[in-house]
Amino acid sequence: MDCVTGLPPGGDRSYNACLVIFDRFSKTPIFLPCHKDDTAMDTALLIWNRVISWTCIFTNIISDRDPKFTSALWTNLHQIFGTKLSFSTAYHPQTDGLVERMSQTLDDMTSIHASTNQTSAILGKEWNPKLPQDSLRQDLAEINPTAVGFKGMLEETGNYAIRCMEDSFSYAKDKWDKSHATPDFKVQDLVLVSTTNFNNIKGCKKLKDSFEGPFVIKALDRENAVEVELSEELSSKPYISSELDKAI
């Protein structure tokens, strides 16, 4: 999940942010209007009333290091539910690329709406669909399975989807591992940090060095992230991807 901020106020409650939730299993996106200054309790109640009430308790939540997601209340709440909390690393799409891509899609949709003040359905069809079947041009074939058969069909479909996703993840991992070696960084190592994702570096962007440093590694955070003691100019991102170069 990710919280998209910087949106113009809208709706009866002047919402100015949107909580984006993406189900990795069903590939279902959920967009929940919220406020930028919502607390951890506000976010927990929003998810409980709008998502968990009609789905189930999450087994794993991947989010950024927003203060509401690292607070004691949020952590203790999900310890009670048995939900594992995983935190993404900046500029590491292998961790939360799905929700980041969906957030970009949300930006595209809201920018289109902001420029026309109309939905795409109104502009294209001159009406807004109320229900999924309202947007269908022809009736689908009628299926009337028995209760037992329906349950079995759902289980078979779910198991097949799990197998397909496992095969896809395995293929992507093998392809990535062939060209990316696991770094062997240690605390106090000197490393060079790529400047690709830093926009606060002074001077001409095209003429800036590809790497800055060397900097000292302060701590190791899982396999794909390290905490680096950056200079004041780059200090906005202390947790960065472990794809660094060792200083010679």
TrEMBL record:
Residues 1-153 form the Integrase catalytic domain. The keyword RNA-binding applies. SUPFAM superfamilies: Ribonuclease H-like (SSF53098). One of its GO terms (biological process) is DNA integration. The keyword Transcription regulation does not apply. Keywords: RNA-binding. GO terms for molecular function: RNA binding. One of its GO terms (cellular component) is nucleus. This is Integrase catalytic domain-containing protein.
